Amino acid sequence: MSLPVRAFLFDLDGVIADTTEYHYRSWKRLAEEEGLPFTRADNEALRGLSRRASLNQLLREQPLDEATAQAWMARKNAYFSSYLEQMTPADLLPGVAQLIDEARAYGLKTAVASSSQNAKRVLERLGVLDRFDVVGDALCVANTKPAPDIFLWVLERLSVPPQAAVVFEDSAVGVAAARKAGCWVVGVGSADLGGAHLLLPTLAAAHVEAILGALAASGASLNLTGPE
Length: 228
Known about the structure:
By secondary structure, the chain is α/β, with parallel strands linked by helices.
């Protein structure tokens, strides 16, 4: 099968920048205020989930009326927003900017597909918003990961079919969503991402040709002409 790759799609949290600590502090603060248990292990289980899905995990099936749920999520986001003010381009994860620039030099389209509602603001703080052709976040679709909707939304705006896109994800729900969308998936990090076509511990030394070569070895011929 011939597969001309045309786009790289990146998750945000844990792939482009490590915002895990900010999310942990925000949820932890809310949990302590409301007398709920919340550990770092609990925070790891929230990777890739939307704000509402994360709140549901925090509640552990404890009932909560909608008005209160909305108020709690707004409070958590206010805490997270205050932490974002500390973020600078130095918080980009190693190798990310270089891989994005290399992909664009090859003529690939680049995009972000995130479950966060703060994606554009984070990218602005990191100084990389202009490196992406499309930014999709939780506000763009009704169903967030593990539904494939955010990837399909982004791909439609890129005019790229799923089979011509490579997705970079660090969470199991993100990998599942990308696979459902029909994309190639590169799992990033140390989490159990067995559904990915390729696993990388980090993007620190990642290069376009090496990634495509490894994906090709997994069962398809990926075609790319090289830098323009």
